[in-house]
Specification:
The protein is mainly α. The chain is built from 9 helices and no strands.
């Protein structure tokens, strides 16, 4: 059984109720107008139950709209480019959602000043994302597309870091053409890193 921030066992029914209520209220009133009091009242739980689980409104909303969703299993499309494109399309669908675009700036601000939240974010959400990249890189090495493994954190930065910047910092209208370009650029960057670190300057990978 998972444990709360205070170390006590978590009640999955209460977890589900809090997160479901959070999603409903974000749809109804938007993230800026959302309050912990509203969630507690509609979910029928005390505010203390929420704060035992989440350090802030932003963390609660992030888990409700993004982190609770299971990542799709890494696609094996037959090419590094195809795998990265499938992954970034899946992330674009959730990261570009109105709720995510509302709460991401608030979460980023909190991460900068809340070390506990930053650690949890890194150890849970980012670790899960980077594990997906590790699987994709392993497949590409096995297919002979990469001269050797690449740090998944760097691959993550090249692709999803660029997507997050486009959506949340530059506020660009990201469409599938841009998503495809990001996957192509990330593919080239990952191949170049593998060549650099594993001594195969002639290696290349064709987009798929």
């Amino acid at each position: 059984m998972e444990r709360q921030r205070g170390g006590r066992p978590r009640d999955s029914r209460v977890d589900h109720k809090i997160l479901q209520t959070t999603r409903e209220l974000i749809d109804e009133v938007g993230y800026p107008a959302l309050t912990v009091d509203q969630v507690a009242a509609r979910a029928g739980v005390g505010k203390a139950a929420i704060y035992r689980r989440y350090a802030s409104k932003a963390e609660m909303a992030f888990v409700a709209t993004m982190h609770e969703q299971q990542l799709p299993p890494p696609a094996d499309t037959g090419s590094l480019h195809g795998d990265l494109l499938a992954l970034v399309r899946a992330f674009h669908a959730r990261m570009a959602a109105p709720a995510a675009r509302q709460l991401a700036p608030a979460l980023i601000s909190e991460l900068a000043v809340n070390p506990e939240l930053d650690t949890r974010f890194t150890d849970t959400f980012l670790a899960t994302e980077q594990a997906a990249f590790a699987d994709i890189i392993e497949q590409a090495v096995a297919r002979g597309e990469l001269a050797g493994p690449v740090d998944p954190a760097m691959a993550h930065l090249l692709l999803l870091g660029s997507l997050a910047s486009a959506l949340y910092v530059l506020n660009l209208p990201v469409d599938d053409a841009m998503v495809t370009d990001l996957a192509t650029a990330a593919t080239a960057g990952i191949v170049a890193l593998a060549d650099r670190h594993h001594g195969d300057p002639g290696g290349a990978a064709e987009p798929g």
